[in-house]
Amino acid sequence: MHPFLMKQQIEYGIFIVEQDGNTDFNRAKLMNVGFMESQKQKAGGWQCFIFHDIDLLPLDQRNLYSCPRQPRHMSASIDKLNFRLPYEEIFGGVSAMTLEQFTKVNGFSNKYWGWGGEDDDMFYRLKKMNYHIARYKMSIARYAMLDHKKSAPNPKRYQLLSQTSKTFQKDGLSTLEYDLVDVVQHHLYTHVIANIDEHS
């Protein structure tokens, strides 16, 4: 990632957020943690956020890691999906949002344990706040997906998605709870480890 981003001559930081604890993987909640912790690391805070699955690598230098006026779905064209968009509302993989956009929709939901649904939830949040999704041409928004073990699908994802427009202001950054286990500032990235288990 570093040679790719350095060629774009942008100021950036890479934050890898790792989940501690015993519960199922929760991508969206980890993204919220990454947002909160990265803001603490820069005077004045960051204004643009690229939420990035760790298994995706960009293939085209024209894919600019910046935030346009509308939220951008950056990973529209993935090799393992035959470089095709699976469905129009997809907003997963790699996505770019400004500070204002992300806070207006109250960040990601914290309720998606297991694989799937959280990116569609974000799409609905953005739509509810009258944003539309921008994308580069498929020839530019190309990514390679690295092999990895898949998480189990979240059986409640469709039920949760049906509630998004009613619940998003009460589920997200405003209700985020986590225990910070460690923050290590390496030379090339910051490693954040957080326990995001729900407290009973």
TrEMBL record:
Record domain Galactosyltransferase N-terminal: where: 1-68
Organism name: Papilio xuthus
UniProt-listed GO biological process terms: carbohydrate metabolic process; glycosphingolipid biosynthetic process
Span of domain Galactosyltransferase C-terminal: 72-149
Entry-linked InterPro entries: Galactosyl_T, Galactosyl_T_C, Galactosyl_T_N, Nucleotide-diphossugar_trans
Lineage: Eukaryota, Metazoa, Ecdysozoa, Arthropoda, Hexapoda
Family from the record: Belongs to the glycosyltransferase 7 family.
GO cellular component: Golgi apparatus; membrane
The protein's annotated pathway: Protein modification; protein glycosylation
Protein name: Beta-1,4-galactosyltransferase
Subcellular locations according to the entry: Membrane
Membrane topology listed for this record: Single-pass type II membrane protein
PANTHER family: BETA-1,4-GALACTOSYLTRANSFERASE, BETA-1,4-N-ACETYLGALACTOSAMINYLTRANSFERASE
Keywords: Glycoprotein, Glycosyltransferase, Membrane, Signal-anchor, Transferase, Transmembrane, Transmembrane helix
MF terms in GO: galactosyltransferase activity; N-acetyl-beta-glucosaminyl-derivative 4-beta-N-acetylgalactosaminyltransferase activity
